[in-house]
Amino acid sequence: MRNGPIGQYLVEKGLINEQQLQEVLEKQKSEKGKLFGDVITEMKYVSDVDFAKTLAERLNVQYIDLDSTELIPDVVKRIPEATARKYNVIAVNKVGKRMMVATNDPINFYVFEDLRVITGCNITALLATKASINRAIGKMYSQGQVDSVVDEATKEKEEELNLDEIDLTSDRIENAPIVKLATAIVENSYRQDATDIHIEPFKTYTKIRIRVNGDLIELMTLTSALHVSLVTRFKILSGMNIAEKRIPQDGRMSQVVDGTTLDLRVSNLPMVYGEKVVIRILATGDMSLRKITDLGMTDYNYERFAACLKVPQGVVLVTGPTGSGKSTTLYAALGEIAKPNVNVITVEDPVEKKVDGINQCQINDKAGMTFAAALRSILRQDPDIIMVGEMRDAETAEIAIRAAITGHLVLSTLHTNDAASTVTRLVDMGVEPYMVATSLIGIVAQRLTKVLCPDCKRLRTSRPDENELMEIGSTPIQIYDAVGCPKCKNTGYRGRTAIHEILLATPEMQALITRAAKADEIAALAREQGCLLLRDNVSKLVQQGKTSMDELIRVTYAV
User: Are 447 and 551 in contact (CB under 8 A)?
Assistant: First the structure.
């Protein structure tokens, strides 16, 4: 079958069935000019990575994972940016007169002939996914451009101060340095896996910082002369009132970066030296839903969580501080239980990720569309599963719990420190203990912990001290420390993983909750029944060399 069409090869490999193949071919006919690979990945029958690997095997071409490959700027620049974007290719390596080029269409010989003329090298095709090539192009060609954009914007500002008239034609505005600067800030932040962008005004300068892996790092410093123009640009894009500078405002905007549409939530707050802007980069509807098993949940915890989701009615709560990945876990749970034969409705503020096949409802407090009002209406919409973005007040909590008692599966989040204190929080909010006990299925408390960079982490030669052994609660072990290298931007960490603590509402637990027991009694029973605490989870990661002692203390420290 190696010589047959790629569709048949995918069937032979067991990645798709015959019926799915016919559906893809039908869709490809209706969308003339689209590659088979683009159609099948859009229909989500096969992931882009699996398709690329299978195609590489079928064509006997080497597959390359560009996200984990270090590219050489001098080699990359041998292909001009316009050509790289036009053909969706990027140079990976050069040996003598032969250049290795990553592409998602390795049989388009016209492209390689063109590249041979441009570079003066013979071309060897490597196969990569379209998305990873886009990301690599954005990352490699943007380095060095930002400085020139900042210089251009500063120079233009100085010129404006000396001119009476300013050209405001549409072409002029689109190519204005401040417009390019605003775009470059979002692009560079996204490429560094940032979750937030802070634009902060001070007396003589404006600092731009981004949050990566939970920590703020400096992206650039600008002259204060650019601040007002930059803030105005973001206010225009996000639909704010640019004339109002005395009160806080909120807005939303979107921007396409390396082929991905980003959804950006913009918040503006007046400060002493001007307006501070914070931009939250939200996971977008373009990005596929992550599976629960991809979120760092251990097999033991996954079995407990999966058991919660099998219960047809009741409440499953995900708790933790802001930015601990609660929404991502809820969306992953919805992805597992949202089948074509059930009606899933969500109430969110805001709707962070748009999901096919799920009815999503946006809160609007000004119009009277509160969580409580939306929930009351949803109960008349014949739902099977309800997701409430957050239980913010007693009214919302009570309606959600009544919905669970009347036969619905309710998923929601709450800001509490651990699983046991969630029960007491609900009772403190005014929900009767017997209602909490009868409706509760399980509680997932979670945090995000940074993962040590595999390239530079260093094994500690000294023995752990007594305090550290008490924190881990086990015999002496190997401990790795963060060091820092260019691959992790000298932070010592690369990426984050979630840790979980899952409490199940067993009959004994329900009896304890009905008696309005304190959090420590609930925690003690949960441990007896096999609940591994957050600290137990991080201790395992420390012992496996995945994270450091500093992270264990940071994530789970309590007075």
Answer: no
pLDDT at 1 over 50: no
Query: Does 429 or 471 have the greater pLDDT score?
Result: 429
Report yes or no: 452 and 548 within 8 Å, Cβ to Cβ.
Answer: yes
Mean of pLDDT values over 67-71: 82
What is the token pair recorded at 481?
């420390």
Contact predicate 185/227, CB 8 Å: no
Enumerate residues 6+ apart whose C-beta is below 8 A from 57: 63
What is the rounded average pLDDT of the residues 219-235? 91
Q: Letter for the amino acid at 346?
A: T
**Span between the terminal Cα atoms of the chain, in Å:** 64
pTM for this predicted structure = 0.76
53 sits in the region (left: phi over 0; alpha: psi -120 to 50; else beta) called: alpha
Write the CA distances from 45 to 6, 14, 19, 449, integer angstroms: 14, 11, 11, 32
Task: Provide CB contacts within 8 A for 330, sequence distance 6+.
Answer: 318, 387, 411, 412, 413
φ, ψ of residue 461 to 5 degrees: the values are: -85, -30
What tokens does 194 get? Answer: 């940032």
Distance CA 139, CA 127 (A): 19
| Token pair recorded at residue 527 | 């441990």
| Residue 558 DSSP SS3 | coil
* Strand boundaries in 343-469, DSSP class E: 344-348, 359-362, 385-388, 409-414, 440-452, 458-459
On whether the CB atoms of residues 331 and 387 are closer than 8 A, the answer is: no
What is the three-class DSSP state of 39? Answer: helix
Number of DSSP helices (H) and strands (E) in the chain, helices first = 23, 18
CA distance 507 to 510: 5
User: How far apart, in Å, are the Cα atoms of 559 and each of 530, 535, 539, 554?
Assistant: 25, 14, 18, 12
446/502 Cα distance (integer angstroms): 9
Query: DSSP states of 351-380 as a string?
Result: --S--TT-EEEE-BGGGTB-HHHHHHHHTT
